[in-house]
């Protein structure tokens, strides 16, 4: 995975698995500090991640 903002390689990747089995990975670029999320191959915004977390808490 390359950084979409600056193209740096070897970005930081933290894998999460939600209680419902959804794979949700967090990426962070150590070069430009860009952060983004990926849900099973789809790019998701922070707002969508928060909505997802809120739905799962119910
Ligand atoms: Zn970057």
Give a verbal description of the structure:
By secondary structure, this protein is α+β, with helices and mostly antiparallel strands. The protein is 21% helix and 34% strand. It has one helix at residues 46-57; strands at 12-17, 23-28, 35-39, 42-44. Strands 1-2-3-4 form a four-stranded antiparallel beta sheet. A hairpin with a 6-residue loop joins strand 2 (23-28) and strand 3 (35-39). The longest helix has 12 residues, at 46-57. The N and C termini lie far apart (33 Å). The mean pLDDT is 92. The chain binds zinc ion. Zinc ion is lined by residues 3, 5-6, 8, 29, 31-32, 34.
Topology:
Blueprint lengths: L11 E6 L5 E6 L6 E5 L2 E3 L1 H12 L1
Antiparallel strand pairs: 1-2, 2-3, 3-4
Bound molecules: zinc ion.
Through-space gap between termini: 33 Å
From the helix content, strand content and strand pairing, which structural class follows? alpha+beta
Tell me the helix content.
Answer: 10-25%
**Number of DSSP-assigned strands:** 4
How would you write the strand order of the largest sheet?
1-2-3-4
Poorly predicted ranges = none
Overall mean pLDDT: 92
Major sheet, described briefly? Answer: 4 strands, antiparallel
Can you summarize this structure?
The protein is an alpha+beta fold and 58 residues long. It has one helix spanning 46-57; strands at residues 12-17, 23-28, 35-39, 42-44.
Key traits:
single chain; 58 residues; alpha+beta; four-stranded antiparallel β-sheet; 1 helix; 4 strands; elongated; binds zinc ion
